[in-house]
Specification:
This protein has two helices and six strands; from the N terminus they run ββββαββα. By secondary structure, the protein is α+β, with helices and mostly antiparallel strands. The longest helix has 25 residues, at 46-70.
Length: 107
């Protein structure tokens, strides 16, 4: 898209793209004309899986290690296409927190 390799961040003023320009591009109804959720993936954190497996193994043996690994939290990754009022487009890969903040600011 038009903002390739730029980061999406969140602030008290709302989510924004950290552009190379002086001012950030805030992601709200004033800048976004339309959006489309492309996909939502569920990923398990490798660090959490190892930690909970080890902790479960120490406390409860082999069965605890299995249960601990399975109990590690999932992280949702969203792919969101943004269409801006000025004709620019961007495809974002963001977590649930940023996704929800962007959708909330578009209304």
């Amino acid at each position: 898209g038009d903002f390739e390799s730029m980061y999406v961040k969140n602030s008290l003023l709302g989510p924004y793209i950290d552009t190379d320009y002086k001012d950030p591009l805030y992601l709200d109804s004033e800048t976004i004309e339309n959006y489309e959720r492309i996909s939502e993936d569920h990923q398990k954190s490798v660090g959490d899986t190892i930690y909970y497996s080890a902790l479960g193994g120490i406390l409860f043996g082999a069965a605890g290690a299995i249960v601990g690994g399975l109990s590690a939290g999932n992280k949702n990754i969203n792919h969101l296409a943004l269409y801006f009022h000025d004709g620019k487009k961007s495809l974002l890969e963001i977590d649930d927190k940023l996704y929800n903040a962007i959708i909330r600011n578009c209304f």
